[in-house]
Amino acid sequence: MYLVDFLTREEYSFYCRFIMKKAVFAAIFLVFIVAVAAFFIFRKDKIISPVGNIPKEKPLDKYTFENLNKKQFQSSKIMLGKILKGDSNYISQMFYYSVDGKKVSGQLNVPKKPGTYPVVVMFRGFVPKETYKTGIGTKRAGEVFAENGFITLAPDFLGYGESDNPSNSSIEERFQTYTTALTFLASLKNLNAGLDASYSAKIKADTQKTGIWGHSNGGHIALSVLAISSKSYPTVLWAPVSKLFPYSILYYTDDFNDHGKALRKVLADFEKDYDAEKYSPSNFYKWIKAPIQLNQGTADDAVPQKWSDQLAETLKKLKIDVDYFIYPGADHNLSVGWSTAVERGISFYNQYFNR
Prior knowledge:
Blueprint: H1 9-42, E1 46-49, E2 52-55, H2 65-70, E3 79-86, E4 90-99, E5 102-111, E6 115-123, H3 139-147, E7 151-155, H4 170-187, H5 191-199, E8 203-215, H6 217-229, E9 235-238, H7 247-250, H8 261-273, E10 292-297, H9 305-317, E11 322-327, H10 338-353
Parallel strand pairs: 6-7, 6-8, 8-9, 9-10, 10-11
Antiparallel strand pairs: 1-2, 3-4, 4-5, 5-7
């Protein structure tokens, strides 16, 4: 016996229409579910929330100055390696630490006489990778500082010396110099453990007295570190690259074989996805709390004197303590007046470390 046997023709017709409506509704609902699933699969760059679309974080977002300012940099062990040089007054030695799982090498200079000494972290200028050796760009000044009672440490940076390779992205490699420097400064609290292993606690670092020295692009790194950290490290700068990014690197492309074509393409791609203003140190000089000594040669063909003139003026307007010295006839390496510049640096550090 079937259900239809108990229904009138009108009731049977109504029943069929009811079943059809249910089937159509189920089909529409299934299509809706498939459409929503497809939306989330193919729109991976967006996350839908009750308050609207939230853009997915991009790989280089973590390097904006605001994000780096919020980051807690993890310290690393500092281990000493082979001795590079040892004369009557100081010892030069390799050191190693790690940043984001990558090894970074560098050169340490320590006075030979037992004691506790202040620390100067040194950031060199640009050197081609194919000609670079540990210590280039900081060696001479670092040795004089060590002879005058300072422990100096100069990181090679990723891709240089015995360090591991940096990112394959040339833009990210540039930003990694900031994280490499900031991680090293955070790691100085472990320096004495490394010194004790080599010098049996006869030579110690007073890491509460830490200064920074930077030349050229190393000056750019120093200014970036001072802004991001807002720490009061007394800092000596020699002809720092201080202009707005990316002009600060495009300025040098006239010496490239392709006149900067490849770099301009990289920067154009970068600026499609990112706001360069958020990565430019000069926009964040207002965060600097450190006293600065600025040294500039008038015959510098790599960093125009006008840049340092403007930097000094900007820092003074921001109420940042700055001493500005100009060296008539001196080139980018302060070949004229080099000894005077080093002596001024020593005096500057002692002024703040002995307070």
